[in-house]
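Data availability (excerpt). All sequences and predicted token strings are deposited with the supplementary files. A representative entry, Transmembrane channel-like protein, is shown inline so that the format can be inspected without opening the archive.
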Amino acid sequence: EKDKEEESRGEGSCGQQNRASRRKNYQRKNSDGKKAGEEGRERGKKAPTKDQKESENKEKKTNKKGKEEENKQKKERKNSTSSASSNSSDEESLSEEELAMLMEQVEQKKKLISTMRNKPWRMVKKLSVLREAQAFVEKFEGALGKGKGKKLFAYKMMMAKKWVKFKRDFENFKTQCIPWEMKIKEVESHFGSSVASYFIFLRWMYGVNLVLFGLIFGLVIIPEVLMGMPYGSMPRKTVPRAEQATAMDFSVLWDFEGYIKYSALFYGYYNNQRTIGWLKYRLPMAYFMVGISIFGYSLMVVIRSMARNANESTADGDDDNFTFSWKMFTSWDYLIGNPETADNKFASITTSFKESIVDEQESNKDENIHLRRFLRVLANVLIICCLCGSGYLIYFVVKRSQTFSKMQNAGWYERNEVEIVMSLLGMFCPPLFETIAALENYHPRIGLKWQLGRIFALFLGNLYTFLLALMDDVNEKLAEEDVVKNITRWTLLNHHNASAGNDSAATPPPLDPADVPRGPCWETTVGIEFVRLTVSDILVTYITILVGDFIRACFVRFVNYCWCWDLEAGFPSYAEFDISGNVLGLVFNQGMIWMGSFYAPGLVGINVLRLLTSMYFQCWAVMSSNVPHERVFKASKSNNFYMGLLLLILFLSLLPVAYTIMSLPPSFDCGPF
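Structure token line:
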């Protein structure tokens, strides 16, 4: 009975007792069994009863159950110890040696993650090692704190990671907000980064001119329109009586005469009062300071862009050293996404290898150096003659236009002869220079820089010749102003005396501003010439693209089936995008904007519209009418060269404006001065 009671108790409490208690019960059962056996022996040696067999079976079952429960408890203890060790890490701290080792390992893993791209390993190994290092850092980086410090450290790390993610998302958002980014990427995928560099430069110029327009429009034009005297209140803001009949004719407005001449677009419209409006806004000082700030801001932006390009190009090696290595490992343009452009790039790289091999072989050969020097000197003499001839032609045309301006019935060509001649010279002289440059036999990159320099000299020479010829016209107008100034004073004095003689008590009626004699206002005349030159340059550029690219591409595309030879492979073929000519056209146009913005504040707004339309029009022309270049050049080689030309023309544009401000007297009856 005692055995049965103890066995029932053991069965009921086996799931709750520990290992030591079960051992004690087992020993007690063995001792009780021994006692019961002795009593049975004393009674007599008989066969084992049914109760003993049942007790033995129950003991075996309890042993099996005890072993199973021990295994379960071991597993639970392992799990509880692992969770307890992780939970008790908040309370227990690492030793100093372990902490130092852990910090060192974490720093090593971080350094490995940052330099993973530079490792000469296979991509599979890089990815596996990177994942292991990231997992190690994430697991043990938080263990560098102690107690509450660990939670603070984990919170800081979480916020740092979220901040990095936020900055990355914000950079992506800013990239999506960049104007025309997808359009430029499309052009870049078809024509390479060299053609896309022109549109990036065009977008940069648009941003600069937008800031300049904001300065002029917000600080000069808006205050004069809102707070200045309205149109018709004074002679400088009124069309003369003799011109009112034709002031709204299209031919007059196309020449920027009539109502456009006496508008806020030009210098003569602005008032010379010290302060205007209820704000007491000092318009003359604002006009002068904005003119200075335009050159200051432009100088700062150009120099900053040059410095950024210089920092980005420091990793570029010298092309004269290790030529074949540079060509082998750095020639491919990974931004190309068009099969035709990829084929052209492949052929270009192959051709460049062949040319380099030929150059290397011919560099060791003897050549007729005297003949080459003679041809180069001859080419430079011919180009200098072309430059001098174009300058003389512009000077002659400007002088003849002064006689045409005095004629009553001058035709459209006679009124716009200067702009037409300058645009035609800019169109036909660069191809002539390229033909003459074939005599020099320069390396293509050196030949490109010579070509850019000569075209720049042509544009700059034409512009300065135009200014010198315009200065003669300004001097004539200054002499005319002295006469008109006396006539104006006598007219106002006679009007006052006549009205006072009729009735001395009454105030004399004011003279109609349209009847007051006025001077020629040479500042407005100079501004009109710059606006005409800019508008004619825009029209010639668009007509050239439309005729020279689009109509030519349509002719080659649809007439090639019924022509005697292959028009696509031979003459005239499809046109390539002229990167250097378009960039120099932008630089030359920006020089005119810097020169003319002081005399025509609205000129910057016209240039903003020109750049905006050029982006869409030229992107359409490139994608529809042009073909990729046979030799695709890297864009990074020319960025600072273009910026250097822009910086040079910025200084050269400042000189005429500074000369006129400091040496020539302002008009007496127009403008803020």
